[in-house]
Design a protein that fits this description.
Keywords: Methyltransferase, Transferase
CATH topology of the largest domain: Rossmann fold
Radius of gyration: 25 Å
Strand order of the largest sheet: 3-2-1-4-7-9-8-10-11
CATH architecture of the largest domain: 3-Layer(aba) Sandwich
Protein name: Class I SAM-dependent methyltransferase
Helix content: 25-40%
Number of strands: 18
Largest sheet: 9 strands, mixed
Distance between the termini: 52 Å
CATH superfamily of the largest domain: Vaccinia Virus protein VP39
Structural class: alpha/beta
Number of domains: 3
InterPro entries: PG_1098_Fer, SAM-dependent_MTases_sf, Thump-like
Shape: globular
Strand content: 25-35%
GO molecular function, one term: methyltransferase activity
């Protein structure tokens, strides 16, 4: 790692060019010929990515960034903070440390953290940055994490793993066995070192597929940020047996939507209804969970159709997702479309509907945006309908 990148003039240049087009900067002459121009451009690009995702890193002086891809792949501070709320105890070892964002937040909850990163350059960068961030309870190990576990030969309160997908697994169905480290293969070895394991995976992983590969899954946390699912967290305890808890969380700017349920537990019958006064659309974390009956039953709502995953009620209730007041209901016919929506401006959502948003916009010349929200869906009588709503 070349520490000359921390020269005050170079750092000032990096800060002055946050957000600047890298392709345009690349055509300029390097104002610091003693430093590799690509390295400076990489710092600008990576720090620009960190501005919203990693505000603590962005605001701290003399931080060194790895490649832009490493910053893109790391946890955001919001999701890292949520992970830290799950763990407890005296010690935690991170078997796939990366840029160290998760460990920064773990270090605020756990007394002793071990950061394992097989890339020696990235490990050195993390050590340097932790000093700048005043993290003093984390030790970095630049080697294979399995070797570190064997070498340290101690009990850990938690093992944390963020396995990366192998390059040769591209195009295949996403399975944990296709990642490094291979968690299913090493699970019993991990349980010899800790009774509690937390695994982070991409949202692409199918929940049923993950459950078929893992054992002792006490809970699955589905974490969304601003209604976009960012990661799945698999909480394993060696002594656990029973039904898995599903915990959905949607981290918003100033609040947090949570909804929990137990997997494969019978729920009360969810009645169907034609649209009433209000319409409810579950957030993306609930949609990923598949808890469509559970959320409707918990909030005592009516469902529009078995496969529409939209709910309705006569009275307004708080709900983990988007809530709308239904202004009008029309059938999907040429006459009504021409009268109510053709050449208008509206936000369009399709749920259990045979056409895409793009094809609907093109066919009826509907512009994007505005204050109208239109749900193209199917009702309990299998009729194609449009609900014209205002957002609450």
């Amino acid at each position: 790692m070349d520490l000359s990148i921390l020269d005050q003039k170079i750092q000032a240049f990096i800060d002055a060019n946050i957000g600047t087009s890298i392709s345009k900067l690349a055509l300029q002459k390097n104002p610091f010929p003693e430093i590799n121009w690509i390295s400076i451009l990489n710092q600008i690009e990576a720090k620009t990515k960190a501005k919203d995702k990693l505000p603590n890193w962005f605001a701290t002086t003399n931080i060194i960034y790895p490649s832009k891809i490493s910053v893109e792949q790391t946890s955001s501070e919001k999701t890292a903070s949520y992970k830290a709320s799950i763990v407890s105890g005296e010690s935690l070892i991170d078997l796939s440390g990366g840029f160290g964002v998760d460990d920064y937040y773990f270090s605020k909850k756990i007394k002793k953290i071990a950061h394992c990163e097989i890339n020696p350059e990235l490990s050195v960068i993390v050590q340097h940055n932790f000093k700048q961030l005043q993290v003093s309870n984390c030790t970095c190990y630049a080697e294979d994490s399995s070797e570190t576990l064997k070498k340290l030969n101690r009990h850990w309160d938690w093992i944390y793993i963020d396995p990366s997908r192998r390059n040769d697994a591209k195009g295949k169905v996403f399975l944990l066995k296709d990642c490094l480290p291979n968690v299913p293969e090493n699970l019993q070895f991990y349980f010899k070192n800790s009774e509690s394991i937390l695994i982070k995976t991409a949202p692409l992983l199918d929940i049923s597929a993950g459950l078929s590969e893992l054992e002792n899954v006490a809970a699955i946390h589905i974490v969304a940020v601003e209604n976009e699912v960012k990661e799945l967290l698999w909480e394993l305890h060696s002594s656990f047996s029973g039904k898995t808890k599903i915990k959905t969380v949607n981290l918003l700017k100033d609040s947090c939507e949570k909804f929990d349920f137990t997997l494969n537990e019978p729920t009360e019958f969810l009645p169907f209804s034609n649209p009433k006064k209000y319409l409810y659309e579950p957030n993306s974390a609930i949609m990923k969970s598949g808890g469509f009956e559970e959320v409707g039953a918990f909030y005592k709502l009516y469902k529009l159709h078995k496969h529409s995953h939209l709910y309705t009620s006569e009275d307004l209730i708080p709900f983990p997702g988007r809530v709308f007041k239904i202004q009008n209901q029309i059938t999907y016919h040429k006459t009504e479309m021409k009268s109510f929506l053709e050449n208008k401006q509206a936000n369009i959502t399709t749920r259990n509907f045979p056409e895409t948003v793009e094809s609907i916009r093109k066919k009826w010349k509907i512009k994007e945006g505005g204050s109208l929200y239109c749900f193209f869906t199917t009702d309990m009588n299998n009729e194609k309908i449009i609900l014209i709503c205002s957002k609450i």
